[in-house]
Backbone:
């Protein structure tokens, strides 16, 4: 880096921070559309990407102008009309964590490349393990490869964490797979409502997508434990080996929690690896009021929990947690002699637990977010979002022509207006064009629903009322 950009850094950072503060405030006040999609060509042109790249002129006013232009192209998560996806409205202190991580670039997969970042990750992993109901790891024992304590690592998203969890399951249940390949009779059982990353992970792991079988479900799409037990017995009688069973806590589409205690008991009885995908719903672990939805999670073998969903942490920051750390430590049985060797050092190398080699210090953004909110602040945040979804469900269910799919258990709410599936999609498309609201849609129980995810604490029931009104307006212009 040239020395002038270093000298300019405090001024540049101040300019950027001021633009961001203005942007957040403007978004929160609904003074700009929550979403506005122009074409890529338009944006590349508007942002003068060619010129800046050629001139290398991103400094002073030009930098500020670029940042302001860029902010105009964003989807505004701070806008109360942001109700579409499970991405956190990031805590500004956590965002500073991302900035510090970017500026220091401590690629902390090995301890010597970021002792503070590693220690913070270790500390936060322990905090998460305790929320799951597992023992946190004392430092001395963390370094003892033979002790059976829990363990985990922060990784770049829940999808990668799900892949890592199933890899740990494979290493634990089919240890010969790594060297010899697929024995041919393996299956993984997943909920009807499982996130697509699970099925994808099964395929990536070389089991074959066809061997990712769907668990029986009740009428709401939750795993049905009795049906599951019969399915297991049938598969075993057919000579299939069940490598793992996945359960949702909660599912992505409608946000329902699977009955973990019953599922876990059956997995225990049959010696089957239980993976709980709590990428979204793990946030409820932070709330004494909501934690009951996750009862039984402590019986799982592996858990995935995203901090960048319910926990206000800037994207990305996901945890893969295992009840016995050795399964994660043995999941990647590979030699990289320049990195993975016995060392006399005061800390721990996370590298043997992850797909990544260079790994960002994700713990910093998580720690700084939670340390700014405090544990009680986090609990209140999660409870507030879930409560709002419940209130909105009652409001919508009470309206003519609207139907709610199911009473929400988390901050996700599916509903629809009279009419067929394509009408729901058309309404969503037009809503996004208007730019007051940004909502998603999902297939659930064979039908298309409009889907609200309450991520922004500023979203009020008044916003939901306005949304319904806008939907009715749009609806009246159709057919
Ligand atoms: C969001 C989600 C994922 C994927 O996590 P990413 O961090 O988006 O990769 C996996 N499972 C569930 C249940 C989710 O809600």
Residues:
């Amino acid at each position: 880096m040239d020395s002038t950009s270093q000298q300019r850094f405090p001024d540049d950072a101040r300019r950027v921070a001021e633009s961001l503060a203005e942007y957040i405030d403007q978004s929160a006040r609904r003074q700009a559309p929550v979403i506005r999609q122009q074409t890529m060509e338009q944006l590349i042109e508007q942002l003068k990407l060619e010129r800046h790249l050629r001139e290398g002129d991103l400094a002073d006013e030009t930098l500020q102008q670029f940042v302001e232009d860029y902010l105009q192209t964003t989807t505004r998560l701070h806008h109360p009309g942001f109700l579409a996806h499970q991405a956190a409205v990031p805590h500004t202190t956590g965002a500073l964590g991302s900035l510090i991580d970017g500026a220091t670039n401590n690629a902390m997969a090995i301890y010597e490349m970021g002792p503070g970042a590693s220690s913070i990750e270790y500390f936060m992993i322990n905090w998460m393990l305790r929320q799951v109901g597992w023992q946190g790891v004392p430092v001395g024992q963390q370094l003892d490869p033979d002790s059976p304590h829990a363990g985990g690592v922060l990784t770049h998203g829940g999808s990668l964490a799900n892949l890592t969890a199933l890899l740990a399951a494979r290493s634990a249940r089919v240890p010969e797979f790594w060297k010899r390949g697929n024995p041919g009779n393996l299956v993984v059982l997943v909920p009807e409502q499982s996130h697509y990353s699970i099925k994808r992970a099964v395929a990536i792991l070389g089991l074959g997508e066809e061997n990712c079988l769907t668990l029986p479900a009740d009428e709401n799409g939750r795993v049905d434990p009795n049906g599951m037990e019969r399915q297991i017995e049938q598969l075993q009688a057919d000579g299939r080996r069940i490598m793992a069973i996945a359960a949702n806590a909660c599912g992505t589409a409608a946000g329902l929690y699977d009955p973990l205690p019953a599922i876990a008991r059956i997995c225990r009885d049959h010696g089957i690896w239980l993976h709980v995908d709590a990428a979204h719903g793990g946030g409820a672990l932070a709330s004494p009021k909501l934690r009951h939805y996750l009862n039984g999670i402590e019986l799982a073998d592996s858990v995935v929990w995203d901090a960048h969903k319910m926990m206000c942490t800037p994207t990305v920051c996901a945890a893969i947690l295992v009840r016995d750390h050795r399964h994660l430590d043995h999941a990647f049985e590979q030699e990289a002699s320049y990195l993975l060797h016995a060392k006399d050092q005061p800390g721990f190398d996370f590298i043997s637990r992850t797909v990544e080699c260079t790994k960002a210090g994700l713990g910093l953004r998580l720690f700084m977010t939670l340390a700014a909110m405090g544990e009680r602040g986090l609990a209140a945040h999660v409870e507030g979002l879930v409560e709002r979804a419940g209130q909105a469900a009652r409001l919508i269910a009470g309206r003519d022509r609207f139907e709610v799919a199911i009473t929400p258990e988390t901050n996700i709410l599916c509903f629809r207006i009279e009419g067929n599936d394509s009408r729901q999609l058309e309404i969503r498309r037009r809503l996004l064009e208007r730019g007051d609201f940004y909502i998603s849609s999902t297939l659930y129980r064979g039908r298309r629903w409009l889907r609200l995810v309450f991520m922004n604490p500023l979203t009020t029931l008044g916003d939901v009322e306005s949304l319904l009104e806008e939907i009715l307006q749009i609806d009246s212009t159709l057919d």
Remarks:
- The CA atoms of residues 3 and 470 lie 53 Å apart.
- The pocket of pyridoxal-5'-phosphate is lined by residues 86, 157-159, 162, 195, 197, 248, 252, 277, 279-280, 306, 318 (CB under 6 Å).
- The radius of gyration is 24 Å.
